[in-house]
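Need residues for this backbone.
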């Protein structure tokens, strides 16, 4: 009986995925169509990666509409822009 409960708990943990905006360490943790991308912070012209989040690469705000109205396209430290939640 304990073995069955343990297997069920492990299966439940391995099938869950993270939504847009969630902290991640690799793309396989994120929902379908999302990637684990760097989260950038700018201080003047200096850019720092402050973490990783489940998101999408975008060219402009319209590339983020599938994530909801609270997402916009932000510059990253590299050439890619990333969808991020607005407050």
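Answer:
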């Amino acid at each position: 009986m304990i073995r069955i409960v343990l297997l069920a708990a492990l299966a439940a943990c391995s099938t869950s995925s993270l939504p847009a905006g969630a902290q991640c360490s690799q793309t396989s943790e994120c929902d379908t169509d999302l990637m684990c991308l760097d989260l950038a912070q700018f201080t003047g012209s200096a850019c720092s990666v402050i973490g990783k989040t489940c998101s999408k690469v975008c060219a402009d705000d319209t590339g983020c509409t599938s994530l909801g109205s609270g997402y916009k396209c932000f510059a990253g430290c590299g050439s890619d822009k990333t969808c991020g939640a607005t407050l």
